[in-house]
C-alpha cells in the first residue's frame, strides 16, 4: 500500500521528469492580503502576469494549506481544516493538453482506477471537453457546468482567474468526491469586476493529497489514512465515549493547531490568533463530548508532532479555557434567545467563541456578526 510519503515523492518525481523544478512550500501564514495560505498558487500570483520566476516556467511542490470556510463540515469523510495540496504550474509555458493529460497520467500511475474518474469542464471551454474525450473519458462522466462551478477565482476581490476543469472520484454510492483541479489562469479580474486578459496563459494544478490517499488506501474517510494514524490512536485511547464526528474534529483541529503554532501563530482574540484559539477551544469542547476528563491537548498534539515548545502553547491555552468552559456551557443552557450582544457577553465572560456558542445552541442568529461587533466596540469605549 502506498503511503503519504510515497505519494508526495511520486508526484514531485513525475513532474520533475517533465521539466519542472521543485520549489519549497511556504508557511501557513499568508501574505498581507490573506490570513492563511489556502492554495499552493498564492505565492505565485505575481508570476501569472509575466514576471519571471527565479526557478523557471515549470514548477512543482507540496504545499500545506489551511481553510476555515468549511469548518462546519469538518467531521465528515472528506473535509479538513489543514490539508496538503500537490501542485504544479506552467507560467506561460505548456497549456491545457499537457496539463489535463499529465494529471490523468499521474493519477493512473499511482493506482486511481480510470473507470472511477469523473470530470467537470467550463461550459464555454470546448477545447478542454475535447481533450477529455480524446483521453477516453466517456461523456457520461463529463459534466459541463457554468461559471459558478467551473470558473476559478479571483482569491480576493480582484486578481487572477480563469476557467477550470475539476477531477472527481466516483464512489460506490454515486457521490462525486473532488480530487483536484486544473485551473487555466488566463484573466485578471479588476476591482470594478471587469476582466482583463493576462499577457500569458498559465496553468495551476492542485490535487488533494488526503483525498487521493483515501482512494489508494481503500478507505472512505481522510481520517482513516496513514496521515491520521498517530493522532487518532491517541484520541481513541483517551476517549470514554464513542462519537466519530467529535473524534474527527479533535484530530483535525489539534493537527491544524500544531501546524499553525509551528509556523509562529499564537492564540489571541484577533485575526490568525483568533482562528487558532477557536480551533483549540472547539477541540476542547469536543473532547468533553468524548468523555475526556482533564487536560489532553498536549497528549493529542504529540501524536502530530513531538515538539515541546509547540505543545506548551496548546497546554497553556487549554489551562486558560478549561476552567470557564463548564460554567459557560451551563450559562448557554439557560438561554432562550440569542443575539450578537449576548454572544459577546459570553465571549467576554467565558471566552466562548461565538461560533462555538451558536453550534452548541443549534439555532440561527441572523445578523449576529454586526451586533457582536457593536457590543465589542461599546465595551472597548467604556474600558478606555
Automatic annotation (TrEMBL):
Gene3D superfamilies: Bira Bifunctional Protein, Domain 2. One of its GO terms (biological process) is alanyl-tRNA aminoacylation. Its EC number is 6.1.1.7. One of its GO terms (cellular component) is cytosol. Keywords: Aminoacyl-tRNA synthetase, ATP-binding, Ligase, Nucleotide-binding, Protein biosynthesis, RNA-binding, tRNA-binding. It holds the Pfam family tRNA-synt_2c. SUPFAM superfamilies: Class II aaRS and biotin synthetases, Putative anticodon-binding domain of alanyl-tRNA synthetase (AlaRS). Residues 2-384 form the Alanyl-transfer RNA synthetases family profile domain. InterPro entries: aa-tRNA-synth_II/BPL/LPL (IPR045864), Ala-tRNA-lgiase_IIc (IPR002318), Ala-tRNA-ligase_IIc_anticod-bd (IPR018162), Ala-tRNA-synth_IIc_core (IPR018165), Ala-tRNA-synth_IIc_N (IPR018164), Ala-tRNA_ligase (IPR050058). It is an enzyme of class 6 (ligase). One of its GO terms (molecular function) is ATP binding. Belongs to the class-II aminoacyl-tRNA synthetase family. This is alanine--tRNA ligase. It comes from Solirubrobacter ginsenosidimutans. The lineage of its organism: Bacteria, Bacillati, Actinomycetota, Thermoleophilia, Solirubrobacterales.
Amino acid at each position: 500500500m502506498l503511503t503519504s510519503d510515497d505519494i508526495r515523492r511520486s508526484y514531485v518525481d513525475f513532474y520533475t521528469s517533465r521539466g519542472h523544478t521543485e520549489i519549497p512550500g511556504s508557511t501557513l501564514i499568508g501574505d498581507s492580503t490573506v490570513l492563511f495560505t489556502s492554495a499552493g498558487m498564492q505565492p505565485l500570483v505575481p508570476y501569472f502576469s509575466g514576471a519571471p520566476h527565479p526557478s523557471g516556467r515549470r514548477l512543482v511542490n507540496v504545499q500545506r494549506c489551511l481553510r476555515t470556510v468549511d469548518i462546519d463540515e469538518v467531521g465528515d469523510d472528506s473535509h479538513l481544516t489543514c490539508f496538503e495540496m500537490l501542485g504544479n504550474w506552467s507560467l506561460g509555458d505548456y497549456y491545457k493538453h499537457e496539463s489535463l493529460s499529465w494529471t490523468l497520467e499521474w493519477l493512473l500511475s499511482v493506482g486511481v482506477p480510470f473507470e472511477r474518474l469523473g470530470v467537470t469542464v467550463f461550459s464555454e471551454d470546448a477545447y478542454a471537453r475535447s481533450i477529455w474525450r480524446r483521453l477516453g473519458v466517456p461523456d457520461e462522466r463529463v459534466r459541463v457546468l457554468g461559471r459558478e462551478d467551473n470558473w476559478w477565482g479571483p482569491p480576493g476581490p480582484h486578481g487572477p482567474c480563469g476557467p477550470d476543469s475539476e477531477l472527481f472520484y466516483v464512489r460506490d454510492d454515486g457521490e462525486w468526491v473532488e480530487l483536484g483541479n486544473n485551473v487555466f489562469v488566463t484573466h485578471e479580474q479588476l476591482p470594478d469586476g471587469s476582466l482583463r486578459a493576462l499577457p500569458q496563459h498559465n496553468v495551476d494544478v492542485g490535487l488533494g493529497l488526503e483525498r487521493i490517499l483515501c482512494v489508494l488506501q481503500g478507505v472512505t474517510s481522510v481520517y482513516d489514512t496513514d496521515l491520521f494514524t498517530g493522532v487518532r490512536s491517541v484520541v481513541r485511547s483517551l476517549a470514554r465515549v464513542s462519537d466519530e464526528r467529535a473524534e474527527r474534529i479533535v484530530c483535525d483541529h489539534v493537527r491544524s493547531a500544531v501546524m499553525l503554532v509551528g509556523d509562529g501563530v499564537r492564540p489571541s482574540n484577533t485575526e490568525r490568533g483568533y482562528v487558532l484559539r477557536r480551533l483549540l477551544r472547539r477541540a476542547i469542547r469536543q473532547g468533553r463530548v468524548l468523555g475526556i476528563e482533564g487536560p489532553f491537548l498536549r497528549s493529542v498534539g504529540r501524536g502530530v508532532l513531538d515538539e515541546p515548545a509547540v505543545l506548551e502553547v496548546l497546554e497553556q491555552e487549554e489551562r486558560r479555557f478549561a476552567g470557564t468552559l463548564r460554567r459557560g456551557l451551563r450559562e448557554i443552557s439557560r438561554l432562550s434567545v440569542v443575539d450578537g450582544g449576548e454572544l459577546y457577553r459570553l465571549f467576554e465572560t467565558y471566552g466562548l467563541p461565538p461560533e462555538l456558542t451558536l453550534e452548541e445552541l443549534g439555532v440561527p442568529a441572523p445578523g449576529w456578526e454586526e451586533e457582536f461587533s457593536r457590543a465589542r466596540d461599546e465595551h472597548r469605549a467604556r474600558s478606555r
